[in-house]
Write a structure and sequence with these properties.
single chain, six-stranded mixed sheet, five-stranded mixed sheet, 19 helices, protein biosynthesis, ATP-binding, ATP binding
């Protein structure tokens, strides 16, 4: 299947400048294409995955993706999607973020048939006079004002700095066309104005018949109309230190039946037949959540590797069954990250005193004795019914944790000092 046909089947095409021309070009040859990301933070989140999954699909069909880390544009600030000015970062902050994002990109794309560049390398060499004479002359202010990204900010105001962002992004496209054989830029729906400005610049400098194209991806909305990728706890990050692989896996496995097939098309490399079969399972056996499990497995493996999937499934099964004793300390750190926790000393103690005085898991000694006698207390996966039992914090999990379960599902993580 031609890559453009595949993207359309997956519902991943919002706008293109010349779909027929792009289809012909990708039939005829392997092309260079790019997507940019400004280093505004030191990790990508799953919203970034939307365009990057498209680049990965091109790469798998032999095309050559180029990622632009915006060391130059990131120092300025993209007005897209913002109703106020961005806070400028220090250059040290930008550099730290560049290094972190580059490492994440290599993890997703490998090192073969893939290039990472930094637009600071060429933008920083343009003098103010060269910028005004060579590029500023080719941009009509009226046209720039009509671009949605600028027009939406006119009422509240936009600085000249952010106003010129589209010129800098256009210079990126021109540079990559000349030096990396890039003929296509991909971005989110809000990038349409910036991308088409780049095409206009290339046509003015290289000739109106130059084959360069734009492709944007639809805004991703959930079935309830809210924006994809946000949770009650904030963004879902690709950095395992910010969002653990277990949390990442859980995010995907908890997706709504109404969204899961769309996400299988967007975020996995499963073929049409397999996705149709999973869609049928959603329709006929939704309680099994087979499509959600497959989605979670595929995306977690793509971002974090196969071992992360194994660990996430191990944690999930342990929490579901209550058999937590076989978890590693690392798995406990992931799986219990958002559960109630308390820190206590490593000394051995009677279970009743420990539950009430040290951890405050139980409100009173009477309640603690009652719960223990009734079999409602589990310590490290084992039921404890002896009120004279002793808690030894060093006995499990490298002496770092004690896991307490009260009732069927109420877990507490006790961290040992």
């Amino acid at each position: 299947m031609n890559i453009i046909d595949e993207l359309k089947w997956r519902g991943a095409v919002n706008q293109t400048t010349d779909e027929e021309g792009l289809h012909e070009l990708t039939d005829k040859k392997q092309i260079g294409l790019y997507c940019g990301v400004d280093p505004t933070g030191d990790s990508l989140h799953i919203g970034h995955l939307i365009p990057f999954m498209m680049l990965k699909r091109f790469q798998l069909q032999g095309h050559h993706p180029v990622i632009v880390i915006g060391g130059g544009t990131g120092a300025i600030g993209d007005p897209s999607g913002k109703n106020s000015e961005r806070v400028l970062q220090t250059m040290e902050q930008v550099k730290h973020n560049e290094d972190a994002l580059s490492a994440q990109m290599i993890k997703l794309f490998g090192t073969k048939n893939f290039t990472i560049v930094n637009n600071y390398d060429w933008l920083s060499k343009i003098s103010l006079l060269d910028f005004l004479r060579d590029y500023g002359k080719l941009f009509n202010v009226n046209t720039m004002l009509n671009k949605e990204v600028v027009a939406s900010r006119l009422e509240v105001g936009i600085s000249y700095t952010e106003f010129t962002y589209q010129i800098l992004q256009s210079i990126d496209f021109l540079h990559l066309y000349k030096h990396e054989n890039v003929q296509l830029q991909i971005g989110g729906a809000d990038q349409w104005g910036n991308i088409t400005a780049g095409i206009d610049l290339i046509h003015k400098i290289e000739g109106s018949d130059t084959d360069v194209f734009a492709l944007t991806i639809p805004l991703m909305l959930k079935a309830d109309g809210t924006k994809f990728g946000k949770t009650a706890g904030g963004a879902v990050w690709l950095d395992p230190k910010k969002t653990s692989p277990y949390e990442f896996y859980q995010f995907w496995i908890n997706q709504d039946d109404r969204d899961v097939v769309k996400y299988l098309k967007y975020f996995t490399f499963l073929d049409e037949d397999e996705i149709k079969a999973l869609a049928e399972k959603v329709r006929t056996e939704p309680e099994k959540r087979e499509a959600q499990r497959r989605l979670a497995e595929e995306v977690t493996e793509f971002v974090h590797g196969k071992q992360a999937v194994v660990e996430a499934q191990h944690i999930t099964q342990a929490l579901f069954s209550g058999e937590v004793q076989d978890l590693t300390a690392e798995e406990i750190e992931q799986g219990f990250k958002n559960m109630p926790s308390v820190e206590v000393s490593a000394e051995k103690k009677n279970i009743i005193l420990w539950l009430v005085d040290d951890t405050k898991i139980e409100a009173s000694r009477r309640q603690a004795r009652e719960d223990v006698k009734n079999g409602a207390i589990w310590i490290n996966g084992e039921k404890v019914q002896d009120v004279d039992a002793e808690i030894d914090p060093s006995a499990h999990f490298e002496g770092k944790f004690v896991i307490v379960r009260r009732g069927k599902k109420k877990y507490f993580l006790v961290r040992i000092k």
